[in-house]
Structure formats: C-alpha cells, structure tokens
Write a structure and sequence with these properties.
About 45% of the residues lie in helices and about 15% in strands. It has about 230 residues and is of the alpha/beta class. The strands form 2 sheets. Strands 1-2-3-4-6-5 form a 6-stranded mixed sheet, covered by helices on one side. A two-stranded antiparallel ribbon has the order 7-8. Helix 6 links the parallel strand 3 (about 85-90) and strand 4.
Length: about 230
C-alpha cells in the first residue's frame, strides 16, 4: 500500500529528488520486521512513537510495545534509515520527576537519532485521563512543576547535542538537514494536502482563497482521473 501511494504521487505530482518521505510507526515487533520493506518502498525517514522507556508508563498509556521492543526498534530503524529517525517521547507523565525525566532523555539521546520530538502530556477534556486526574486518582505535574520540567527538557537536550528549533522539536547537532521539513511547513504556513478520512489540508488558490479540505481531495482526485484518461488515449 505504501509503495502504491508513493507511486501514485510521483505519477501525479512533481516530486523533487530530495523529498522527505516520513512514515510514523510504532516500535512493536511486527512493525519493526517491516522497516526494510518500508525503506524499499521509498520511505526515507521514520518517526517512532517510543513515548517512554518505562514499562509501567507504557502500560498506563495502553501501548502495545515494551521498553525492550522500543530499544530493538530504535537500533533497527537507525540502521535501515541511515539514522534519519525521529524518536517521539512524552514528558509530564503521572508521578514523573524532573530527575527521572532528565535521565530518560539522556538515555534516548544516546542512540544518536537525527531528531527528537519531546511532547508534554496533554490531559484532554472528556478523556478517561481527564476524569482520573480530576478525581485525584492520577497525579500529573501541575503548572510550576511542568514549567520546570520543560526547562529541564530544553537544557538537557542541548547538553546532549540536540538543539531546539520548535516548541517540541529538537535537531541533532542543530543541523538544518536534521529538522523535520513537514513540521516546519506548519509553522511557516506552507500549503499541504490532506488525503484520506479525517486528514487535514491547507491549500490556497492563486487568488488567496483557502480551499476546504474536501475540495482539496476532489481536486486531487480530478487530477488523477484526468491523467488516467490522458494515458489511456
């Protein structure tokens, strides 16, 4: 499926040779076994949802992988994708201390991936976690503690060689080539197309009018149909 999608895009759109093609994946044993196939299909950058290097917290989040799975997936991914890997972590977890987070951050940084995405845990209204925090069954760092943890995130990341270029994004050695291009496009207001159920797109026509997501999908589908008709004649 991934190969077919990328082939369709290349047949339909102008795709530069140095395009960044990122796939988001989970570090389960099943997905790890498919990484070489993803690379062969044209994926050249991988974002791994590690979330935590702590089995207790992974179970709390309902994740399907263990810390051992995560470490194995990181090693395989770094080899397959020539270190063009982003490791996603969550801080501000229940009962997490600043000291424990700093140690965990140093641990994940020691793998030498090109990018780290370090997100604060968001307690969304209407979720089981929101109710558990409200009832006092789960304790997460509050404002002052969260602020201290954020400062520790930025400072620790810098000490281990990762420079912050966005709120939650850190590039290895501060090199521009290690930054996520699609992340930067959101901040810079660059157009992008969302394809598929629930996908979000941002696209303006030449007159400066923003096109709705569903219209973007229709336009994209129309382009494909026109090309198919042209190829068949």
């Amino acid at each position: 499926m991934v190969s077919k999608i990328l082939t369709s895009l290349r047949d339909t759109c102008h795709v530069p040779d140095d395009v960044e093609v990122t796939l988001e994946g989970n570090p389960t044993s099943i997905e790890t076994s498919r990484l070489r196939a993803f690379r062969a299909a044209g994926i050249n950058r991988l974002s791994l949802g590690i979330q935590a290097l702590n089995d207790t917290d992974l179970r709390f989040f309902g994740r399907d992988h263990t810390t051992a799975n995560a470490r194995r997936a990181i090693q395989v991914a770094l080899d397959v994708f020539d270190r063009r890997v982003s490791l996603d972590m969550i801080w501000g977890r229940p009962n997490q201390t600043v000291t424990a987070w700093e140690q965990e951050l140093r641990d994940i940084a020691s793998y030498g991936a090109s990018h780290l995405s370090l997100y604060q845990l968001t307690v969304e209204r209407g979720t089981p976690l929101f109710r558990a925090v409200g009832d006092g069954h789960v304790r997460v760092p509050m404002d002052d503690a969260a602020a201290e943890m954020y400062e520790a995130t930025v400072e620790t990341a810098a000490r281990v060689g990762y420079d912050q270029y966005e709120v939650s994004s850190f590039a290895k050695d501060g090199e521009r080539r290690n930054r996520s291009r699609h992340n930067q496009s959101y901040w810079k207001g660059v157009d992008y197309i969302g394809i598929g159920p629930g996908a979000h797109g941002r696209l303006y026509d030449s007159g400066g009018t923003r096109l709705r997501t569903f219209r973007v999908c229709v336009l994209f589908a129309s382009d494909i149909r026109r090309k198919n008709l042209a190829d068949s004649t």
